[in-house]
Design a protein that fits this description.
Pfam families: ILV_EDD_C, ILVD_EDD_N. This is Putative YjhG/YagF family dehydratase. The protein is of the alpha/beta class. The chain contains 27 helices and 14 strands. 52% of the residues are buried.
Length: 657
């Protein structure tokens, strides 16, 4: 039990009784030395460039080095650490808590290499912290806002020669990639902020988020919940231990060629993690010397490689929102749902990681097994990668993979995994043949049907294997339990009002309803309750990357945009079929509380029905998020990456004016 804050007197707020505070000076000597300027600079340079030199000297930079090339380090750092690592002020999450150490390491390296480092930050929220709260309504919209801020910061150093981006988690890292993607001829390098370690005993950060639901069902004691909850984040920095949106985004950054080889998923706070910042700083300087810009790295082939790696890892479905947004920022074509489906049919899943299984290795163990370049070796052998693309090494992906294959780094870190954890690296990252023999299946399927005429998405790998029928097909027919808010759904689950075979239909969770909230609270509760693997979920909201189960999200159109999902009534009979072999699927209304009538008749009846009278945005939906929803709707919506497309928005406004 926490102690109450001591009573605070008005006098202590108004004044501090210390005479030394009154000794105030009005002048200071200023830095010694001379600005290294010339008459030509005074005649030709903008005043901002000249005043910038004065400010740099004022901050203590050596005057004789003021004309060294300038490079910007942007990060999502949050919180405030003391020199000994203890917290002075907490961050929103561990993912950005130690990122400042990477900034410092990179800055020292740049200074050592005769460059002038600048540092700025735009911190980010935590999807885990905001699960089940109104804070989730700001989560996805924040990504666009942060990308705008980061881009503005990049442009606000017009003398900068390149940008180093350092980020870790669910929204800050996609935002950073969107910002860097817009850099064009300017060189940029991304430093993934790494992952947290597993506790020596207890639960990972994904499972521990279900302690409330399990306690409500008498599965765990209060004492157990308190203990595992305390130690789940076993180290103070890094993204969560599972292959959620944070870890998948790190993988995608490296797959795009924006990050150096084998920097994604490094253990936060450890020497190998700090070394990535130093090498990335050197890499940025090398790109500057070679005159290689971001546009030389980010190409349509790089975008496709990123989707290929997403499939091979079995990554979070939230990257369906983020990869198109990165492509849009780079002025490249945005991948379509059809392209995602085609690639997922071609690419085998090769990685056994939380939460997909079958053995559920942690992200740091995936790193030790070889991480992204190890997976790429298998994909190169299978002819599934374009290895001619340029990366931030300044060379081709082929050259990087040739180095990795023979590197001592690869041999030694794989040995660490074997010797420390007793894990065969080839059981974590498998060859296609071994993966097939272990039952790993491709990741993402895009069901359509009379309830999702514009599509939906399910991570088919995450369906409980015991529910898979002959031919690798999942099928489910059950009555609808309809909820307008996540709060109502989770209350029903905890109270036992959701039964074996039900189909939870959670609507008004899309962009216009709740900012396209992430509903891990619902899916995690279902996973931990004994009968609930037999419950399916349909929603116009989205899922956490750690979600598992028969959960279909991104249903389009959303309920508040007139989608038929907003016409479902309590007791309607819904049929879901997912072919995990062919990666095809359907989600249909096939009956009501009185009779079963099939999908074709279901389509006809949905057309005749009016939307439910109780459809409405969440009462706490922020005005900022309402505006975001309108702008992304005009810009291609969910399948377009929830971006701001300036041309589309301006054109729409002009037509209406």
């Amino acid at each position: 039990m926490s102690l109450p804050i001591a009573a605070i007197s008005l006098s202590s707020v108004l004044e501090t009784d210390d005479p030394a505070l009154r000794r105030v000076t009005t002048h200071a000597p200023g830095p010694s030395g001379l600005l290294p300027i010339s008459a030509e600079m005074l005649l030709t340079q903008p005043s901002g460039n000249l005043f910038g030199l004065s400010q740099n000297a004022g901050m203590g930079w050596e005057p004789q080095r003021l004309l060294d090339p300038e490079f910007l380090i942007l990060s999502t750092h949050g919180g405030l650490r003391a020199d000994d690592g203890h917290p002075i002020a907490l961050g929103f999450h561990t993912g950005h808590w130690e990122v400042g150490l990477l900034v410092a390491e990179a800055a020292r390296e740049l200074k050592e290499m005769r460059a002038v480092p600048f540092a700025g930050a735009c911190t980010d929220p935590c999807d885990g912290r905001t699960q089940g709260t109104t804070g989730m309504m700001d989560s996805l919209p924040f990504r666009n806002d942060a990308a705008i801020v980061l881009r503005r910061l990049m442009r606000s150093l017009p003398t900068g020669k390149g940008v180093l981006g350092i980020a870790t988690c669910d929204k800050g890292l996609p935002a950073m990639m969107m910002a860097l993607a817009s850099a064009g001829k300017t060189p940029t390098v991304l430093v993934p902020g790494g992952v947290t370690l597993l506790p020596e005993s207890g639960e990972d950060a994904g499972k521990v988020q279900t302690i409330g639901a399990r306690f409500a069902q008498d599965q765990i004691t209060l004492e157990y919940a308190a203990e595992v909850g305390c130690r789940a984040c076993a180290s103070p920095g890094g993204g969560c231990q599972f292959l959620g949106t944070a870890a998948t985004s790190q993988v995608v950054a490296e797959a795009l060629g924006l990050a150096l080889p084998h920097t994604a998923l490094a253990p936060s706070g450890q020497p190998v993690w700090l070394d990535a910042a130093r090498r990335s700083a050197r890499g940025l300087l090398r790109l500057h010397q070679l005159q290689i810009g971001t546009a030389d790295v980010l190409t349509p082939a790089a975008i496709r490689n990123a989707i290929v790696l997403h499939a091979a890892f079995g990554g979070s479905t939230n990257l369906l929102l983020h990869i198109p947004a990165i492509a849009h920022a780079a002025k490249l074509p945005r991948p379509t749902a059809a392209e995602w489906a085609e690639i997922n049919r071609q690419v085998p899943r090769l990685v056994d990681a939380l939460p997909n299984g079958p053995r559920n290795f942690a992200t740091v163990q995936v790193f030790l097994a070889g991480g992204v370049p190890e997976v790429m070796l298998h994909l190169r052998d299978a002819g599934l990668l374009d290895t001619s693309v340029k990366t931030v090494t300044g060379e081709t992906l082929d050259a990087s993979l040739d180095w990795w294959k023979e590197s001592s780094r690869r041999r030694e870190l794989r040995s660490v995994l074997q010797n420390t954890d007793g894990i065969d690296p080839d059981d974590v990252i498998m060859s296609p043949d071994r993966a097939r023999s272990r039952g790993l299946t491709s990741t993402v399927c895009f069901p359509a049907g009379n309830l999702a005429p514009e599509g939906s998405v399910i991570k088919s790998t995450a369906i409980d294997p015991s529910l898979i029928e002959e031919g690798n097909v999942y099928s489910h027919i059950g009555p609808a339990k309809v909820f307008i808010t996540e709060t109502a759904a989770i209350e029903a689950i905890k109270n036992g009002a959701v039964a074996h075979g039900d189909v939870i239909v959670l609507i008004c969770g899309g962009p216009a309803g709740a900012g396209m909230q992430e509903i891990y609270q619902v899916t995690s509760a279902l996973k931990q309750l004994p009968h609930c693997k037999h419950v399916a979920v349909l929603t116009d909201a989205r899922f956490s990357g750690v979600s598992t189960g028969a959960c279909i999200g991104h249903i389009s159109p959303e309920a508040l945009a007139g989608g038929p999902i907003g016409k479902v009534q309590e007791g309607d009979v819904i049929e879901i079929v997912i072919d995990r072999e062919k990666l095809t699927g359907s989600v249909h209304l096939i009956g009501d509380a009185h009779a079963t009538f099939g999908a074709e008749e279901g389509t006809r009846r949905l057309e005749q029905r009016k939307p439910r009278p109780d459809l409405k945005p969440h009462p706490a939906l922020p005005e900022d998020t309402r505006l975001w929803a309108a702008l992304v709707h005009a810009s291609g919506g969910v399948w377009g990456g929830c971006v701001y497309d300036a041309d589309s928005i301006i054109s729409l406004l002009e037509r209406r004016s």
